[in-house]
Every structure is written in structure tokens, then in C-alpha cells.
């Protein structure tokens, strides 16, 4: 499972938790403007916006899990098992495979409005990257540095593009059902509740935080969606980049999966392999890994963006403890 968010605090911060039981060998990858992006059914993009994000590089091709471009448009692919459906190639449509979808959008669009235009003629097609790396059933959150966000879901009924007013995406069910479910939690609050249960009776406020007593806390995607909406939309806005990045990671880590809690096969547990976030205005990409609570950063503009060669930054994994004596 996974969770992706757009946090607004002056600038906009976009990224995700990647929750899985195996690591693919992903790293931070910058694709510069002149790297030739080949597509199976569409013309090569010889020149495009530069992209930074988390990717597995295979045969010199960056298979992005999530990322953002130099204009401040971000995009993340999240599991959508059993619901995602990809189609055969159709003449006259823009036929793009899901593994090409992030470069296709981030290479060409400055913002969500441009992405919506590009999606009008899109057909997400069932072409595997290779026999070893077959398609995964994904849906996507796309968000920009003006704060707009959409969700893209390709199901048996076709391609669906939904405005996302909450800036959160997890996994199943379909996005409109997640939004409907939020209505059940409207009374969840950071404040202690007013007693409407028995207004004429005194009830003891035995604890702080009673306003969030009904907040779901499970590992499942519906619980994470509600919990993250509550956390994100009550998060403070900081006065500095450091404060904002700190708040941002607290929001994501609120729904992280600790090892041992989500059993996906006997004795095999899914956990939050990494959490990442990019400041969409500055192009600084931040991340933490399960093994390392330290926030690491890669600044895309410190890489030569007028190049044809991918720049790869292996993930820092060792825990660093600040010994004080
Ligand atoms: C499985 C995860 C999504 C995380 C998640 O929700 N998993 C748990 C679950 O089963 O619910 C997805 C997100 C991005 C995906 C990868 C990217 O799409 C890039 C690449 C695309 C290829 O078609 C398949 C391999 C490969 C490398 C994908 C493997 C599966 C990934 C890593």
C-alpha cells in the first residue's frame, strides 16, 4: 500500500510513502532535458522538462515510481490492485504504457491544467516493460506548485480523471468512494468534543485528544486515507523550509507502516520502504528510508540539466545516531 500527499505551506510539497515487502533497488534519479525518452507507441521526446524522483534504472531507462519536473509538476503511481485495467493499442489515440506515464506527463506539462489537456486523448495500454518487469496495477496522483491536484484511474469502464480537493491518495477503492467515505468522519476534530450524546448529562473528559477518538488507525487504504486527510489538513504551516519539511514528513510518517503489522503472505510483512517529498517551487527532493530517520536531500538544479545522461543517487540507508556524550 502507499500514501501520496500534497502539503501546502507557502510552497507546495509533494511525495509519497512506498509501502511494500520487497525493495526494487530504486534510487533518486535526475533525468536531464536532453535524455532521449523513447516510448513504445509514441514519438521519442528528445528534449523535455528535467525530472527528479525515485526510480529503478533498467537498461538506462528510469522507471519512475514518483517524481516531479523542473516546472513544479509532481506525479506518483500507487497500487490499485484488482481495479486498474489497461487497454490494447487503439489507432488515433495517444497510446502510453503505465511504465511510461510519469515521463510522458512530467516531460511535457508545466501544471495540472496542461496535464488534463494531455490526458484528453490518452489510452493507457497493456504493454510490459519486459517479461521480468510486467505492468503493475497503478493509479496516479498528479499535483502542481499552484496547489491543484488530480487523480487518474484507468478501469474497465475507461480513463477517469478526478479533481482531488484533498491532496491525498492511497489505494483501493476508487477515488470517488474514498471521498464519499470521508463524510463519515466529518466530526473528527483536534479539539475536545462537545457532549451531544446526552446534552443534559455531565460526561468526563478523561483524556486529551478525544476529538480524534473515532479516527481510523488501520494499515488498510481506507483508514490511511481518512487518517492522512485529518493529519494533513490540520498540519501547521511553518515559517521556514526546515519547519515545513519537518511538518511534511510528520504527515507522511503518521501513516507509515512499521515492520510486523501488515502481513501480506505468511511471515512476510509490508512496510514503508521510503518516504519522499519534493519542494515543487525549488526542486529539492527530500527522503527518509525505513532504516534511516535522517532526512536526506538531492537538489535537482545542482545537476547539469542540459545533458543526455541520467544522474543517479543511491539511497542512504544506515541509521545515524547523534551521540551526545
Ligand atoms: C508496488 C508499488 C506500489 C506500492 C504498493 O501499493 N504496494 C503494496 C500493495 O500491494 O498494496 C509500485 C509503485 C511504482 C511501481 C513501479 C513503477 O511503476 C516502475 C516499474 C514499472 C514496471 O511496469 C513494473 C516494475 C516497476 C519497478 C513498478 C513496480 C511496482 C511499483 C514499485
TrEMBL record:
Which Pfam family is one of this chain's hits?
A: CBAH
Q: What is its EC number?
A: 3.5.1.24
Q: Does the keyword Amino-acid biosynthesis apply?
A: no
Q: What InterPro entries does this protein's entry cite?
A: CBAH, CBAH/NAAA_C, Ntn_hydrolases_N, Peptidase_C59
Q: How far does the signal peptide extend, from start to end residue?
A: none
Q: Which UniProt keywords apply?
A: Hydrolase, Lipid metabolism
- Outline the extent of the Choloylglycine hydrolase/NAAA C-terminal domain: 2-311
| Protein's pathway | Lipid metabolism; bile acid biosynthesis
Q: What catalytic activity is recorded?
A: cholate + taurine = taurocholate + H2O; taurodeoxycholate + H2O = deoxycholate + taurine
Q: Name one GO molecular function term.
A: choloylglycine hydrolase activity
Name the family the entry cites.
Belongs to the peptidase C59 family.
Protein name, UniProt field: choloylglycine hydrolase
Say which species the protein is native to.
Answer: Limosilactobacillus panis
Name of the gene encoding the protein in the UniProt record: bsh
